[in-house]
Amino acid sequence: MDLEHGKKPPAIAAAELCSLKDKLVGLRPVLLRAAAVLATAVAAVVMGLNRQSYTAVVAIVGTRPLTQTFTAKFSDTPAFVCFVIANGIASLYNLVVLLTRRCLVQGRAQHLVVHRMDMVISFFSINSNLPIK
Fold first, then answer.
1. pLDDT tens figures, 54-80
2. Per-residue b/e over 76-112, b at no fewer than 16 CB within 10 Å?
3. Three-state SS for 54?
4. What angle do the packed helices 78-100 and 108-126 form, to 10 degrees?
5. Contact between residue 54 and residue 69 where contact means Cβ atoms under 8 Å apart
6. Which residues lie in coiled coils (predicted)?
């Protein structure tokens, strides 16, 4: 209504809008970490609990087929074992960062600590030599 009559909106509304925008921008890393925790935890759990079976006809004796059931688990393939371990570590790391986010030093130092921890965990996840079977 005020704009229709040629009046400018009050400056208080603009300040509140800026503070709300700053809060939302500050909330973005928390939401991204929470999404990362959820995604990596779900990937690790789904892969860890995954079991597939396939029943095949091996031979036919007379009129009766002989069948064999083949079952595969994630632990049968070393790449899947590494996948579950890596997702578990990533999930745990992101959860620890989320929980200790407020305990760390506030301000620019907090961001530097978190970024350095991210670089360290990325370095070890890329260059890891996990002993697999």
1. 999 888 888 888 899 989 888 888 888
2. eeeebbebbebbbbbbebbbebeeeeeeeeeeeeeee
3. strand
4. 170
5. yes
6. none
Residues 6+ apart with CB under 8 A from 30: 98, 101
* Closest by Cα among 9, 91, 79, 95 to 42: 91
Displacement of CA 81 from its chain's centroid (Å): 17
For 1-133, list the strands marked E by DSSP. Answer: 51-61, 64-73
Element (H, E) at 47: helix 11-49
pLDDT at 37 over 80: yes
Dump the DSSP string for 105-133: PPTHHHHHHHHHHHHHHHHHHHS------
Residue 133 has pLDDT above 80, yes or no: no
How far is the C-alpha of 14 from the C-alpha of 12, rounded, in Å?
A: 5
